């Protein structure tokens, strides 16, 4: 956990890798039952929830497993190429992830949720942009890193 007086990462605040894997596992079950998203994810493999959990962990301040073992940010971008994702699907994806966080009673303090929504809006819009015709992968794209933003988190008491 965090040292007294130090600022926890978003990753620590939400409960670490186990909590993220619980979130993505349940999320993709919900996705498979969703009329707008089921067909988009019809061919995802069984490891997809674990890969997305590892990616989110790294972005939110956790261990760099996705960079070290799964190809990093360029690999993630490649997975979205030419999928022609639509805004309606993106909005549903974000909404369903947040609904799943509620379903699993993840932290719902205003500071954490606004930081999470900020990242999901940013990341999902990039996924849509990178899924359109003509999008290219920057092989050196660094992993995004997300923190608390402008607010003083609940960690500050
Ligand atoms: C913050 C937003 C997002 C993140 C962090 C994210 C993350 C990822 C990652 C890490 C992968 C690759 C998994 C692997 O390495 O095997 C992936 C694949 C994929 N993503 Fe996303 N994604 C985001 C948004 C979206 C959205 C909004 C959609 C569609 C509405 C989407 C659709 C897909 C699909 C279809 C795949 C390929 C699944 C397959 O293997 O068939 N993503 N995403």
UniProtKB/TrEMBL annotation:
Presence of keyword Kinase: no
GO MF: heme binding; metal ion binding; oxygen binding; oxygen carrier activity
Q: Which Pfam families match?
A: Bac_globin (PF01152)
Q: Does the keyword Iron apply?
A: yes
Positions of transmembrane segments: none
Spell out the coiled coil positions from the record. none
Q: Which UniProt keywords are present, listed alphabetically?
A: Heme, Iron, Metal-binding, Transport
SUPFAM superfamilies linked to this entry: Globin-like (SSF46458)
UniProt-annotated binding residues for heme: 51, 75
InterPro entries given in the database record: GlbO/GLB3-like, Globin-like_sf, Globin/Proto, Hemoglobin_trunc
The name on file for this protein is Group 2 truncated hemoglobin YjbI
| Source species of the chain | Variovorax paradoxus
Which lineage do the record's taxonomy fields give for this organism?
Bacteria, Pseudomonadati, Pseudomonadota, Betaproteobacteria, Burkholderiales
